[in-house]
Amino acid sequence: MSEDDNNMEDYPTEIHDYLVAFEKSLGSVDEMLKTMMSVSRSELLQKVDPLEQAKLDLVSVYTLNSMFWVYLATQGINPKEHPVKQELERIRTYMNKVKEITDKKKAARLDKGAASRFVKNALWEPNAEKEHTSKTPAKGKKRQ
User: Fold this and answer.
1) Where are the domains of the chain?
2) What whole-number distance in Å separates Cα of residue 12 and Cα of residue 40?
3) Alpha carbons within 13 A on the beta-carbon side of 81
4) For residues 82 and 73, what is the distance between their CA atoms, to the nearest angstrom?
5) What kind and span of H or E run contains 45?
6) Are residues 56 and 48 in contact, defined by beta-carbon separation less than 8 angstroms?
7) Residue 17 CA, distance from chain mean position
8) How does this polypeptide assemble, per the annotation (predicted)?
9) C-beta separation of 45 from 53 below 8 A
10) Residue 78: which H helix or E strand, with range?
């Protein structure tokens, strides 16, 4: 009997596909971590602006805490009753703040000059109306 056959007997066959997908996901996380760790933090932070630095830090700490959440679950500890839950909520709060800042930067800017011209031209001016009516013949009168 091979080692794979032995492992297949340790868990129900229905979850085999889930475990294979989980193993692939762990492999991709491992590759990303190796890529991130290959560049020094100071070198990486020199290349990005402060907002991108904040995003990078938040994603890193969120990922680390999420992995700890999974670790707790595998150890039979309920992560919902562990302080890691509050930490993840705190990180999400900061992620939302950074998202708001990013959205504000992307928002359309008001061109005050164009807006004032638009409003000025859209408003009714009584003097302009009198000039307009005196130049045009009144209805009902015949032109000669």
Assistant:
1) 14-47, 49-105
2) 43
3) 4
4) 11
5) helix 41-47
6) yes
7) 31
8) Monomer and homodimer.
9) yes
10) none
Q: What is the dihedral of CA 134, 135, 139, 144, to 10 degrees?
A: 120
DSSP structure string for 11-80 = S-GGGHHHHHHHHHHHHHHHHHHHHHHHS-HHHHHHHS-HHHHHHHHHHHHHHHHHHHHHHHHHTT--GG
The Cα 38–Cα 32 span in angstroms is 10
Which tens digits make up the pLDDT trace of 56-92? 899 989 989 998 999 999 999 999 999 999 999 999 9
Place of tokens 């290349």: 47
Do you know the residue count of the chain?
144
Q: What's the pTM value of the predicted model, to 2 decimals?
A: 0.58
**Residue of 59, 139, 70 lying closest to 94 (CA atoms):** 59
- HSE at residue 99, side-chain half, CA atoms within 13 A, is 8
Tell me, what amino acid is at 12?
P
Beta-carbon count within 10 A of 13 CB: 8
- Which tokens sit at 45? 């932070």
